Amino acid sequence: MNNRNPPIACRPVTPDDTGLITQLFSANSVCRGCWCMHWRVEKGGKTWNACWGDPNRRTFLKLLRQGRVQGALAFAKDKPVGWCNFGPREDFPRLKRSRVLIYKAAPSTWSINCFFVAAGWRKRGIASALLNSAVKAAFERGARVLEAYPTPQKPEQNLVAAFAWTGTRTLFKKAGFKPSVDNERVWVKRRAKA
Ligand SMILES: CC(C)(COP(=O)(O)OP(=O)(O)OC[C@H]1O[C@@H](n2cnc3c(N)ncnc32)[C@H](O)[C@@H]1OP(=O)(O)O)[C@@H](O)C(=O)NCCC(=O)NCCS
Predict the structure, then answer these.
(1) Residue 135: which CATH number?
(2) Under a CB-based contact definition with an 8 Å cutoff, are residues 69 and 59 in contact?
(3) Which of 80, 82, 95, 117 has its CA 20 to 30 A from that of 132?
(4) How far is the CA of 119 from the centre of ligand 1 (A)?
(5) What is the pLDDT of residue 193?
(6) By residue range, what is the domain housing residue 129?
(7) Does the CB atom of residue 128 touch ligand 1 within 6 A?
């Protein structure tokens, strides 16, 4: 450990974290438009465009204060440096409209669907730490199956970071996810039997 590589700690987000989330998201041009609302707003196009920016911010922070947002936050000392969004599939109505993610989900399936690691903190395992925290919390909270949508990637291909916001294949593979049988774009992990 040194000042350039402080230890990273992750924990689930709480309704008191509006300030930390605002600090993290406001520093990035996409996050301060999306506010992790992409999968929560049912439609794209004009509907989504009308939500971009302040409307998304207000809705997301309200949901967070109401305890209706689940996610993991990563910290370097006290500084928020990463985010991973998850929750029951039903929280994300836009999933059902996606043509490439057509898939028959089992009951109690939860979705892990967005990552953000702040610029300057990438490629040092923070998304992996966030995913571990999200998987643990989701299974503890009742998920039986987790699904994810890693960005399509050729072997060894370096993805443009902004296009990898649903995570990478290696990220999920190392956490025990596998492509589902009905749609290889949807990767799944089942809760271990007790
Ligand atoms: C994609 C992203 C989450 C990865 O986070 P990260 O902390 O750098 O990821 P990790 O260091 O934990 O890497 C996990 C695995 O993914 C791989 N990986 C990470 N970034 C990658 C990239 N750009 N291309 C290919 N593979 C990548 C790593 O090599 C690692 O695999 P390995 O263990 O076999 O080496 C990060 O780049 C990011 O936040 N991008 C911006 C996404 C965004 O715009 N989100 C906001 C949406 S509103």
Answers:
(1) 3.40.630.30
(2) no
(3) 95
(4) 11
(5) 82
(6) 8-190
(7) yes
With left for phi above 0 and alpha for psi between -120 and 50, is residue 168 left, alpha or beta?
A: beta
Question: pLDDT at position 126, please?
Answer: 98
Q: Spell out the per-residue pLDDT of the chain, length 194, in tens.
A: 555 688 999 999 999 999 999 999 999 999 999 999 999 999 999 999 999 999 999 999 999 999 999 999 999 999 999 999 999 999 999 999 999 999 899 999 999 999 999 999 999 999 999 999 999 999 999 999 999 999 999 988 999 999 999 999 999 999 999 999 999 999 999 999 87
Counted domains in the chain: 1
Q: What are phi and psi of 12, to 5 degrees?
A: -65, 145
In a domain, residue 45? The reply is yes
> Is the Cβ–Cβ distance between 41 and 48 less than 8 Å?
yes
- In the reported structure, the alpha carbon of residue 157 is separated from the centroid of ligand 1 by a whole-number distance in angstroms of 12
Sequence letter at residue 95? L
Residue 1 inside a domain? The answer is no
The distance of Cα 159 from the centroid of its chain, to the nearest Å, equals: 17
Residue 50 belongs to some domain of the structure:
yes
68 within some domain: yes
Between CA 47 and CA 69 the distance in angstroms is 21
